[in-house]
Write a structure and sequence with these properties.
The protein has 112 residues and is an alpha+beta fold. The chain is built from two helices and five strands, in the order βαββββα. The protein has a single domain, classed as Kinase associated domain 1, KA1 (TATA-Binding Protein). The protein is 26% helix and 41% strand. The longest helix has 15 residues.
Length: 112
């Protein structure tokens, strides 16, 4: 598992679109598996969770990337990205190259 946490600034919806487009365009095997979106009644607090999946050539299997964006009244957007999968070992992880690569793709999108 690989994880990246950071704070984003700007428009919440623009970040969602940028992340989704960037991940899906970054790999021919990437897909958006599901998402959840929450908003407080007054609209001051939002949370979105996106779960992506893609095939890892390095590991010969599929792995996932879960991205959570949370924005409260302050306007800053807390962002967490966590990968999972990417190993074909039975009791411990043998390779994590696919996970690291998927997280690198995400990092390039948010830090560009």
């Amino acid at each position: 598992m690989a994880k990246l946490e950071l704070t984003l600034h700007g428009d919440f919806d623009a970040w969602l679109a940028r992340i989704q487009d960037g991940i899906l365009r970054g790999s021919s095997t990437a897909s958006l598996e599901d998402r959840s979106d929450f908003r407080s009644e007054d609209g001051s607090t939002r949370c979105s969770v996106l779960v992506f999946e893609r095939y890892s050539m390095a590991g010969g299997n599929r792995l996932s990337l879960s991205v959570t964006l949370f924005q409260a009244r302050s306007g800053e957007i807390a962002c967490s990205a966590i990968t999972a999968g990417g190993s074909n070992a039975r009791f411990w992880k043998v390779n994590t190259w696919g996970e690291a690569s998927f997280l690198d793709c995400f990092q390039n999108i948010v830090q560009a």
